[in-house]
Amino acid sequence: MKGGLMGVPIFFVVSGYLITDLLIQEWEQNGKIDIIGFYIRRMKRLYPALITMLMVTGTYITLFQRNLLTNLGKIIVSNIFYVYNWFEIRMGQSYFDKFATQSPFTHLWSLSIEGQFYLLWPFVILGLLKLVHKNSHRFWIIFAVSLLSAIEMALLFSPGKDPSRLYYGTDTRMFSILIGTSLAFVWPSTKLRAEMPAENRRIINLVGYLSMVILLIFFVTLSGENPFVYHFGMYLFSLVSAVLVAVVAHPGASLNRLFTNPFFSYIGKRSYGIYIYQFPVLTFYEAKINIGEHPILNGIVEILIILIISELSYRLIEQPLKKFDYTNALEEIKDVFMAPKGVPIKKKVSVILALTTVAITLVGSFQSTTVKKASSSDLEKQIIKNNKEVAKKNKQINHKDESNSASSSSSVKEDNINDENLKLSPKQVEQANNLAITAVGDSVLADGSAELQKIFPKMYVDAKVGRQTADAVQILQNSANSNQLADTILVVEGTNGPFVGNEVSDIMKIAGKKRQVYWVNTHVPTRRWEGQVNKDLQKNDKKYKNLHIVDWNSYCKNHPDWFYDDNVHPNPEGVKYYSHLVAKNILK
């Protein structure tokens, strides 16, 4: 779903409302707020599952997935102190890079914002309750601050730039929590009554269902790259979420009965664990399994694993440790080793397992390296370098500078590729030197563009990171309109999502019957659309005689060493095989 990222604002609004409502109740009942008690309750609720997830995940990474060791120690420490969102900002981590090495910790940024909220909010509430005497005034003060947060997000947003700083920042995301907290002052749960006039009940139900429809529209239509999201779209979404929360909180509303049934109550109690464990499960599972081949089956398996782990965590970790007296923790551990005969076997196993995961994670943390700013990755550096080379080459092609074009082809006259089937004959090299090609595609083409232009000096390349197939259609149409479309067309599309509509047919119409179109199929084993994209290409291959599918996916399947960590973009070694496979298909 496009707007899946909009689930976090709902979580923030709900959290802001519930925490503030509880603190107000405590003030009204006791005339004070026990801040230390509040901290202890929060820590007992949140830390057991979080620490367990961090230690178990750290252990798995240290033993089985060492490519994720980077910054492990700092990631764990920043999560323990609830500053991970600022750590991600400082390290230049992008939430929106589809093919960066997926981290099992990425989602924890939101818990850090929550932790910062828990730390500061009791003091803010105390100040408001003591200094401001009307709930309506308290409401407007908080609401005004929430608006300032949204304005900051809108002002800092820059089209074309990665919005991760805005997405992760406490200052630019706090408005959702503040909207929830402001609601608690004008819609306290203790003042809501199930008995209400029939007309009022109809109105509140209508408002509730209407807010659900609006939120669903947001979910379906908005993506994280849409400028509207940052220009008050997320703020509007949070306001509508607050309306829904208000309706659900009212005991007289139909939605209250819907969302307080046993099933939702069961899920709600385990929702924290489900959220905590989802990314580790998805990351580790998809690193081992090609989910693109059977997306539905693998999706079901992943959900089941997450639910099972969450249930075990709830029963064996969260509930028992919620009541545990941590002042005796060291004594309990000492007893396991100093007086083992009197200690139940269950406790022995638990303590030994816990200490083992901590020890292994510490080893991994000391072995981890520190890498700042993901944008300086080898892949991105390679694409930037390729783009510069391609821009020069395209300029030469446009100016028909044949001497410069020919000179650049000398590097392919001696093939240094191990696969004899992919080596180019002298005749094919000569053919490649004189063949005009229009190539359009996404980041995979950008990754291999320089190598392809060494083989095909007259190949004009238009490649862009994140490009969708619909964009390629327009680019090819513009080339055809200006009489610059070559008789041979290379298309590298499908990496960033499934085909929507008739893009393949549209491209074939632009090409006509005389031009030959070579389409490299997609290799995105960590994305669910891989199988669908390649099936659609095979279907169209039978439909059009001048469409030729370059089966890169099958050729590279057993060669993980040909790829960067994302298992999508070929590394320098893989690019040689990629470009030669394309060349052999074109030069048959």
Strand-helix topology:
Blueprint (H helix, E strand, L loop, with lengths): L6 H24 L4 H30 L7 H9 L3 H7 L18 H23 L3 H22 L7 H5 L1 H17 L11 H24 L5 H23 L4 H6 L2 H27 L6 H28 L6 H10 L6 H23 L10 H21 L3 H6 L18 H9 L2 E5 L1 H13 L3 E5 L5 H13 L6 E5 L10 H9 L4 E5 L9 H14 L3 E4 L1 H5 L15 H15 L2
Parallel strand pairs: 1-2, 1-3, 3-4, 4-5
Helix pairs in contact: 1-5, 1-8, 1-10, 2-3, 2-5, 2-12, 2-13, 2-15, 4-5, 6-8, 6-10, 8-10, 9-10, 12-13, 16-19, 19-24, 20-21
Q: What can you tell me about this protein's structure?
A:
With 588 residues, the chain is mainly alpha-helical. The chain has 24 helices and 5 strands. A 5-stranded parallel sheet has the order 2-1-3-4-5, with helices on both faces. Helix 21 links the parallel strand 3 and strand 4. Helix 1 packs across helix 8, helix 2 runs parallel beside helix 12 and helix 6 packs antiparallel against helix 10. The longest helix has 30 residues.
Largest beta sheet: strand ordering: 2-1-3-4-5
Distance between the termini: 41 Å
Structural class: mainly alpha
What integer is the average pLDDT? 89
Number of domains: 2
Bin the strand percentage: under 5%
Report the C-alpha radius of gyration, rounded.
Answer: 29 Å
Number of helices: 24
Uncertain regions spanning at least 5 consecutive residues? 372-376, 401-411
Would you list the SSEs in sequence order as H and E? HHHHHHHHHHHHHHHHHHEHEHEHEHEHH
Membrane topology: Multi-pass membrane protein
Protein name: Acyltransferase
Organism: Ligilactobacillus hayakitensis DSM 18933 = JCM 14209
Pfam family, one: Acyl_transf_3
